[in-house]
């Protein structure tokens, strides 16, 4: 029997509706409007699309959206100056600096300049440390979205074997932390992992976040497993016409869907959850800032 398709788009809509309801209530009862500032440095085309979508959905949820688009050659001091201003602006509850940054900018320094309580990406070193030690923190949006989908499908994750493919600071590492916090037995696999197919075949939960199109075939998947595909890869699609492209995940969907118990599609799986969680984190930051 083919896998259940996990509808991240529909789930994200319910999260966004819930956030919008809280925003309406905050405004009516406390006169507060949560605000999210997004900073984009340079002209990376994918980043421009993400930032535009973040702005649109922020406004749709009733929050204030502040967009700062800076030229690629912006000096580090100028970017740090802007972050300092946003840190002390009471209308701004969340700050997100879109990654990747141009090579002359030190991403760690920039991220760690954001006030931790406004770090809605959860990338600040204090939030990373808090997450890893079980303290209240901002949780990175993509792994948080994956966790919500997993809990929704599986309920209690305790004792399940979870394999996270990829060890990035944005997805792989925080995903592993969250699954460990939910009492999974967690393996983080990466490009140097030996016997990768066998490691994957042991997974009740497989989260693929490596950025390699269709890298995971169906025969790496344990029958009945829940597969979360974080990859968003653009590949040529000659079947759609000359020069056309389409998006595929890190998992080979067509073979995986025959084996898995449930799987997220690309697009329409994890992607929409990321922005929904960003809005939820901004709301959380606003509530915490105002007691
Ligand atoms: N670039 C790709 N994903 C992300 C993300 O979740 N946050 C930020 N700031 N940049 C990204």
Question: What this model shows, in words?
Answer:
- It comes from Halovulum dunhuangense.
- Its EC number is 1.5.1.5, 3.5.4.9.
- One of its GO terms (molecular function) is methylenetetrahydrofolate dehydrogenase (NADP+) activity.
- With 291 residues, the protein is α/β, with parallel strands linked by helices.
- The chain has two domains: 85 residues, Rossmann fold; 131 residues, NAD(P)-binding Rossmann-like Domain (Rossmann fold, 3-Layer(aba) Sandwich).
- It is 41% helix and 16% strand.
- It contains ten helices and eleven strands.
- The strands form three sheets. The protein has a six-stranded parallel sheet.
- The mean pLDDT is 98.
- It binds guanine (GUN).
- The site of guanine (GUN) has 8 residues, from β4 and α6.
Q: Briefly note the CATH topology name of the largest domain.
A: Rossmann fold
Order of helices and strands: EHEHEHEHHHEHEHEEEEHEH
What is the strand content? 15-25%
What is the CATH architecture term of the largest domain? Answer: 3-Layer(aba) Sandwich
Q: Total number of β-strand segments?
A: 11
The N- and C-terminal alpha carbons lie at a distance of 50 Å
Give the overall shape.
globular
- Write down the domain tally: 2
Low-confidence stretches: none
Q: CATH homologous superfamily of the largest domain?
A: NAD(P)-binding Rossmann-like Domain
**Top-tier CATH class of the largest domain:** Alpha Beta
Radius of gyration: 19 Å
Q: Please state the average pLDDT score.
A: 98
Helical segment count: 10
Give the helix proportion (percent range): 40-55%
């Amino acid at each position: 029997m083919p896998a259940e398709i996990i509808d991240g788009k529909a789930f994200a809509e319910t999260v966004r509706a819930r956030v919008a309801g809280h925003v309406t209530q905050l405004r009516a009862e406390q006169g507060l409007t949560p605000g999210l500032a997004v900073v984009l440095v340079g002209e990376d085309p994918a980043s421009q699309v993400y930032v535009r979508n973040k702005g649109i959905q922020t406004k749709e949820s009733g929050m204030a959206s502040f967009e700062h688009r800076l030229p690629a050659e912006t000096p580090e001091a100028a970017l740090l100056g802007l972050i300092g201003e946003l840190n002390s602006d009471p209308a701004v509850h969340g700050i997100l600096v879109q990654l990747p940054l141009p090579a002359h900018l030190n991403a760690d320094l920039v991220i760690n300049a954001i006030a931790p309580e406004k770090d809605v990406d959860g990338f600040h070193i204090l939030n990373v440390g808090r997450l890893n030690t079980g303290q209240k923190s901002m949780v990175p949006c993509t792994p948080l979205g994956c966790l919500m989908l997993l809990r929704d499908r599986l309920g209690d994750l305790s004792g399940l074997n979870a394999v996270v493919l990829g060890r990035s600071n944005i997805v792989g590492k925080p995903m592993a932390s969250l699954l460990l916090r939910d009492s999974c037995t967690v393996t983080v696999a990466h490009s140097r992992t030996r016997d990768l197919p066998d490691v994957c075949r042991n997974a009740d939960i497989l989260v693929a976040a490596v950025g390699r199109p269709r890298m995971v075939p169906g025969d790496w998947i344990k029958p009945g497993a829940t597969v979360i595909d974080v990859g968003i890869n653009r590949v040529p699609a000659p079947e759609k016409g000359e020069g056309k492209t389409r998006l595929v995940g890190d998992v080979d969907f067509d073979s995986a869907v025959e084996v898995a118990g449930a799987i997220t599609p690309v697009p329409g799986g994890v992607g929409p959850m990321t922005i929904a969680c960003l809005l939820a984190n901004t709301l959380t930051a606003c509530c915490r800032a105002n007691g």
